[in-house]
Amino acid sequence: MKRIALTLASALVLAVLLCSAAWAGMVAQGKCIEYDKAAKTIKIEEYDINFTPENKYGTPTGTITVFDVSEAKIGIPPEPNDILRIAYTSDNDKYHAVKVMNVSKQDLSKKR
To answer: At 16, is the pLDDT very low, low, confident or very high (cuts 50, 70, 90)?
Structure first.
């Protein structure tokens, strides 16, 4: 009886882990180049994760990416040169933003 319960509990934990991995999206961070409210898109220059005192949000990579934000939750509205963190999903080379955080105007490290 204990063996069956242990097996079922293990299967449940495994199922939860697999589902959470499937729901996880991707994240991009970079400088806002353009926020087009009419087209519902945001264009950013992506940053890498090489954080330095000079580049506290990462180093620019030169990669320009456009995100569809028609269904995204957007915190503080972005402006050009703001640093944004975008959680998104990808579908056939189109990027659909789920959440947009304006890191430069909502920097959590300043609140400590």
So the answer is: low
Which residue's entry shows tokens 């703001």?
A: 82
- To 5 degrees, how large is the angle CA 57–CA 69–CA 109? 25
CB distance 66 to 94 below 8 Å: no
The answer, as to whether pTM is greater than 0.90, is no
Beta-strand (E) ranges in 4-104? Answer: 26-36, 41-47, 60-68, 73-74, 83-91, 94-102
**Domains in the chain, please, with CATH?**
25-111 (2.40.50.320)
Residue 73: count of CB within 10 angstroms of its CB: 11
